[in-house]
Amino acid sequence: MHMRLPVRERVLMALLSGAVLLGWAANASANPATPAPEVRSLLGQPQELGAGQFRWLGFKVYEAQLFAPQGQGFDRNGAYALEIEYARKIKRKILLKASMDEMIRIEGERSDHGQIQQKLTACYRDIQPGDRIVASPNGGNVLKFWVNGQSTCTLQHNGIRDRYMAIWLSDKARDRGFAQQVLARQK
């Protein structure tokens, strides 16, 4: 399933894709991030495992943090949450296309990509500066999404946890530095 975007949005998509190619600037702060309320409700007393900033031409696009329950470290099969706070306005269809392009880049074309894209459409929203998306797995086949603290969807699909989270957390992630920083703390 391919969407044809207007010229202005194709240019923005090209810029965002180019930014992904350049990777994130590491953001190792001395002060741990304060997790969003939905992250605290999911994980109890969460600890930050890693953080990064995604910048394009010097402008911050978003910041991301990965959280797990205090003392757990990163466990792919355990509880964790990825929180992304955006600094730029981005349309839902741009976020959706970027996610699907990355999934296809990582795993190649698969027959179920159209199904995943359709399911993700319900999870995403148009983003304004300061908005945050939280994604958290519930087992290997379920991902829960929140936008600004409101649950937007529970995506159920075979293997979706590892396939979707690979965009940020795999050895094939565009920002290997962020992935390595997080995975270095794996238990």
Which structural class matches the secondary elements? alpha+beta
- The tally of beta strands, per DSSP, is 7
| Main beta sheet | 7 strands, antiparallel
Mean pLDDT equals 83
Overall morphology: globular
Question: First CA to last CA: what distance?
Answer: 38 Å
Succession of helices and strands = HEHEEEHHEEEHH
> How much strand?
25-35%
Helix content: 25-40%
Number of helices: 6
Q: Residue ranges: pLDDT <50 for 5 or more in a row? A: 17-31
Taking Cα atoms only, what radius of gyration do you get, to the nearest Å? 16 Å
Give the neighbour order of strands across the main sheet: 1-2-3-4-5-6-7
Descriptive terms for the model:
187 residues, 7-stranded antiparallel beta sheet, 7 strands
